[in-house]
Amino acid sequence: MYKLVCMAFGLFIALNVSAEQPEKLAIDGVKSCFRGVFSDYASWVGFMEKRFSSRELEDNLVKKKLAGFQARFSEIDFNAFKEQLSCQTFTYYVDGLKVAGYMIKPKQINEKLPVIIYNRGGNGNYGAVVFGSMMANLFPLAKKGFMIVGSQYRGTFTEADNLDEFGGQEVNDVVALMNIITRIEGADVQRVGMFGASRGAMQTHLARKQMPGIKAIATIAGVVDLNQELAFRPSMEKVYQNRIPNYAADKEALLAHRSVINWVNTMPKNVPVLLMHGAQDKRVSVENSIRFSKALSKERIPNKLVIYEADNHSLELNRQAVFSELAEWFHTHL
Fold first, then answer.
1. pTM of the full predicted structure?
2. Pair 175, 285 in one domain
3. Which residue has the higher pLDDT, 13 or 257?
4. Which of 20, 30, 121, 229 is deepest in the core (most CB within 10 A)?
5. Residues 268 and 299 in one domain
6. Alpha-helical regions (H) of the chain
7. What is the tens place of the pLDDT at every residue in 59-76?
8. In CATH, what number is assigned to the domain containing residue 170?
């Protein structure tokens, strides 16, 4: 079991801290996401221009990359999100370790909001939820009337980057968020769902085992069978070897433990699951979601499978449809 000790900070409601560890904070360093180079759009664009220029690219290529950046992240969208959303980063403590987290919610709240715990993909520092990924993947969903809370997983944003066990002890970092949510102003603790992308789907199902309060789940390009996935993408073995403790000695069992397809029969029948996947996904086979949907149906667990035929791992070609699907799913089931 993870250990989480609590105290208030910023927007979070005051807590009682145990006398044994009065110096510990569950939530610390609360800061706005719209800070530094992200304080305004011009600063962000200037930062990206310097970044592109530092790669010693030709001027026309720098301009091309900058135009692509501005096409993806427009000034209109940036200003609208900044005006309408509250976004904060914070740190919290799990198992004695400092973990980075974040919270996004609409500024105008008339009633308590349903909460979505977001579990990111990638591993270690790769795939961390930086400002750009927040704007691309989370701001549009929060704008539809949700509070989004997430963990970067232990070790992220550190030079060592060696604490992520890819479905091991860092799952505790997700489970601990439920205690934090109960202390966030405007959060409806009776309406909490989880959303995971790629590796984050594995994280979602592992964490859900310890989180009976989860009401609904959604995943994008979810990995549900790590052993079988190796045949589709052999390069993932390097990630498993580097991340999973004792991997060489007990490979099959460790991957099976992380594969929800092996324990579908233990999942609650009152927690519906939305599965979205691109048929052209080169990173995680779409067969993961197809097989999982069939397994869920066999166990009479409500589920919906949405396959985007021409799309890839990130569902880049169907972003608006994906946000609409997620919003409808969670508004219906939370």
1. 0.92
2. yes
3. 257
4. 121
5. yes
6. 41-53, 59-72, 75-84, 131-133, 139-142, 171-175, 177-181, 199-208, 226-232, 236-243, 251-257, 287-298, 319-333
7. 889 899 999 999 999 999
8. 3.40.50.1820
